[in-house]
Design brief:
Blueprint lengths: L10 H18 L13 H18 L7 H9 L20 E4 L2 E3 L2 H10 L6 E6 L5 H8 L2 E7 L2 H13 L6 E5 L12 E6 L8 H5 L1 E12 L3 E9 L2 E10 L14
Parallel strand pairs: 3-4, 3-6, 4-5, 6-7
Antiparallel strand pairs: 1-2, 7-8, 8-9
Bound molecules: S-adenosyl-L-homocysteine.
């Protein structure tokens, strides 16, 4: 759209109106990130500093060693995935509410699960529980193609919008539905990450791993054990990592064993 600035007679009024509009936009954007000249705003610098501290104090010092994971956690703008939260709180050492009674995991848990997946690009990873989209973005930033399934429609729709806006549109494929049955059309996967707690390990998710592929999943009720199931030629190997607390996985996994 173009605006003509010098219409006879109406020029001054129009110019004044445009100035007020500019001023309004500038004021409304007081908290926005990015500036017209491409330099980081003070808020952006503050959040970058918080991300750096998060990586040092919450991840590296607690034993996360994979450089690809550390770089991804440094690069993904976590605060963009929790839109209702004060951005400076997004880097705290805790899970945060993302609406619909669900939570985005604490940064350490996201990093740990990403590291336990043991993936190298070009990797193909299935995630059950898109939630905010943050874990999917971290895996995409690590160089993987990500397939992510979310049961709660408004969360899946919002995550899709944010992932597109953050530039992960082609690397993260998502759909709404029960992740119990996985996404067989795109199997086998190098890793499957389940970000909700399951009372038992869904067999279809094990079946969709390639040989050598790893399923990372919290198993249990109130408190859970984070488990890794690695597919071998002749079966599965199970490792128990740490105690964790995730929101429950819902849907078919709750039905009696079939
Ligand atoms: N990975 C997410 C964390 C999401 S919390 C993030 O980075 O933000 C767990 C998510 O799993 C919730 O959004 C919940 O709705 C979803 N969920 C629970 N049961 C599910 C199921 N059977 N299939 C798919 N998603 C499920």
């Amino acid at each position: 759209m173009s605006l003509e600035m010098r219409r006879p007679g109406g020029g001054r009024g129009l110019r004044r109106a445009l100035w007020s509009l500019l001023l309004l936009v500038a004021q409304a954007c007081g908290g926005c990130e990015g500036s017209a000249d491409g330099r980081a705003t003070p808020q952006e610098e503050d959040l970058a500093g918080r991300r750096e501290k998060m990586v040092e104090l919450q991840l590296a010092s607690r034993g996360i060693r994979n450089d690809r994971v550390l770089a991804a956690m440094r690069n993904v703008l976590r605060h963009r995935y929790v839109p209702d939260l004060d951005p400076s709180r997004a880097y705290d050492d805790r899970p945060q509410s993302i609406g619909e009674g669900q939570t985005i995991s604490q940064p350490y848990i996201v990093a740990l699960m990403s590291e336990l997946a043991q993936v190298e690009p070009p990797c193909k990873v299935l995630e059950i529980g898109t939630g905010s989209g943050y874990q999917a973005a971290v895996l995409a930033e690590m160089g993987c193609s990500v397939y992510s399934i979310e049961l709660i429609e408004p969360l899946g729709v919002r995550a899709r919008r944010i992932l597109d806006a953050e530039g992960y549109g082609d690397r993260v494929h998502s759909r709404i539905g029960d992740g119990y049955a996985g996404w067989p059309e795109f199997a086998p996967f190098d890793a499957v990450l389940v970000t909700a707690a399951a009372p038992r390990v869904p067999q279809p998710l094990l079946d969709q791993l390639r040989v050598g592929g790893r399923l990372v999943i919290p198993v249990g009720d109130h408190w859970q054990k984070l488990e890794v199931h690695t597919r071998r030629e002749d079966g599965f190997e199970r490792e128990t990592i740490i105690d964790v607390r995730f929101v429950p996985m819902k849907g078919e996994v709750r039905e009696a064993q079939k």
